[in-house]
Amino acid sequence: MSERSKTTNRTPTGPWIIDTRDLGRRPGSSRGYHRKFEATSDFGIVEVLGIPSGAEVEFDVLLESVVEGVLATGTVSGPTVGECSRCLDPLSGEVEVRITELFAYPDSATEASTDEDEVSRLVDDLLDLEPVARDTIVLTLPAAPLCAPDCPGLCVECGEKLADLGPDHRHETIDPRWAALQGRFGEAGNNSEEN
């Protein structure tokens, strides 16, 4: 047996993989699963907001055997980190999402009548919850997270936090048409006043 065929025939393992053989294929059979483990990769864009690699993720799901496959329902949760999209302060919190996904049996009517990316599939009686959890978490997290709904952000002139600068903070602005003249004659005007 070649080295390549050895690696492709291995059964996938990991905390997200669930073997459904214990569940059986009789419609109405169900079984619960609860797991806590470290995320092996980021969920979301951690620089914006997401669950970082190494954080403890938890899922609590119920698998139910139905005519066309296995229905997975439950929750996935974990800690989030990121930064405010206005003031760039670090953010941290928790996310909990509800998942509901049908994993179609091979050769079922659902498997035969849907595209590969429309419905999840059981492969060798195994289901992988990670893609479902990842997609649900990413779609739940805000694209532009805020530290507070009324965060004023940063000053566009100096880059300092507006919340720290106070209401009287302002920058003197010069009409760009006169800026070159002020640079030239402003110095000359100052010199003539000194004389």
From TrEMBL:
Q: Where is this region: Disordered?
A: 1-30
Tell me the PANTHER family matching this sequence. Answer: LARGE RIBOSOMAL RNA SUBUNIT ACCUMULATION PROTEIN YCED HOMOLOG 1, CHLOROPLASTIC
Lineage in the entry? Bacteria, Bacillati, Actinomycetota, Actinomycetes, Pseudonocardiales
Native species of this protein?
Answer: Allokutzneria multivorans
Question: Could you identify this protein by its name?
Answer: YceD family protein
| Matching Pfam families | YceD
